[in-house]
Amino acid sequence: MIPFVSPMEVLMTINIDSTPAAALDRASLVLDAFDGPGRLTLAQIVRRTGLPRSSAHRILERLVHLRWLRRQGRDYELGIRLMELGSIAVHQDRLHKAAMPYLHELHRATGFVVHLAILDGADVVYLEKIGGALAASIPTRVGARQPAHCTAIGKAILAFADPADPAEPLMQKTRYSIASRARLDTELAKVRMHGVAYEREESLAGIGCVAAPIGEIDDAVAAVSVCGPTDRMAFDHRLAAPVRMTALSIWRNLDGGAGRVMPTLQRRHPLRMGPAGMAPMPVAR
C-alpha cells in the first residue's frame, strides 16, 4: 500500500525557520514553478521562485524524499505522489459531473435525500448531497465521513472491496449497527446477490437508506443512495429499482460519455411520486 503523506508532515519536514503558513507558501512556490512539462534545474527553480538557493535546495530535497518531486541527476520533475493525487482528483471530478443530473432526477423522483460517496479505508466519504426539505434531518455533508459498515451506501461498496482485517473492531453508531464480522459478511453477500444495500437506523436513529454500487460487475468505484425517515421508506423494489437504475446511468455516463448513452432516468419522462413520498416503479415507456 502506498503510504499517505499529510500536508502537515510536509510542513514539518520543510519548515525552515518559519511559521507553518510561510513553509506552506514556500512549498507551494516551488511546486508552482513546475508550470509545464519537462524538468527544472535548481538554478531555474531559484530564478522562478526568488528563494535563496540553500532554502530552495532543502525544500526540493525534502519534497523528493516525500515523492512529491522526483530527481533525475541534477534536474527535478513532478513526482509520483502528485500524479496519484491528481489522478484521484480528476477521477472524482469526472464521477461528480457524470452523476449530478441523475442525482437530481432521483431526488425529484423520490423526495428523499440523495448521496454520492466513495470508500476511503473503512469509511465512506460523501462527494455530494441533495436534500431538499429533508436535508436538515440527516446530518451528513459533502466531505464528511461515516463508518462504511453502518451505512447502506458504504455496504454497497464494501460488498465488492477487498476483505477487511477480521480483527478490526466494528464501531457501533446506534443499537442497530452491525457489530460482528459474521453478520457483516452475511449482509455483504446479500448485496452482491441483489445489487442493492439497505440500512435501517444503523447510523442514525429513525433514518433508513437504500443504496446501489456504481461500477463494473464486482467492482464498485462509488455508490448512490436515498435516505429518509424509516416510516416513509420502502425497503423493496419501489426504491431499489430507481436507485439501481440511477447507479447504472451514472456508470454509463462516466464510462462511455453522455452523448452515446440514453439515460435510464430521463427528464422528459419523470418518475411519478407515490403516496407518502415513496418511489414507485419507473414510468413504463
Automatic annotation (TrEMBL):
Residues 81-260 form the IclR-ED domain. SUPFAM superfamilies: GAF domain-like, Winged helix' DNA-binding domain. Keywords: DNA-binding, Transcription, Transcription regulation. One of its GO terms (biological process) is negative regulation of DNA-templated transcription. The keyword DNA-binding applies. Residues 21-80 form the HTH iclR-type domain. One of its GO terms (molecular function) is DNA-binding transcription factor activity. It comes from the Bacteria. PANTHER family: HELIX-TURN-HELIX TRANSCRIPTIONAL REGULATOR, ICLR FAMILY, HTH-TYPE TRANSCRIPTIONAL REPRESSOR ALLR. This is Pectin degradation repressor protein KdgR. It comes from Gordonia insulae.
